[in-house]
TrEMBL record:
Species this chain originates from: Paracoccus niistensis
Identification of the protein by name: Argininosuccinate lyase
Matches recorded under PROSITE patterns: PROKAR_LIPOPROTEIN
Length: 47
């Protein structure tokens, strides 16, 4: 029981800014092309 509680506490604290204070995202210096989204491919069989 104590090990599970210690593990849960370690997991909870690992996401609480342990790596340092939050940083503002940097803006790209030069314009560029960004492509986002997702593609899917497949076959659908209907009875």
């Amino acid at each position: 029981m104590v090990r599970r509680l210690a593990f849960a506490l370690a997991v909870a604290l690992s996401g609480c800014g342990v790596d340092g204070p939050p940083e503002v995202p940097r803006v790209a210096d030069e314009p560029g092309v960004t492509v986002t989204g997702d593609a899917r491919m497949g076959v659908v069989f209907t009875p």
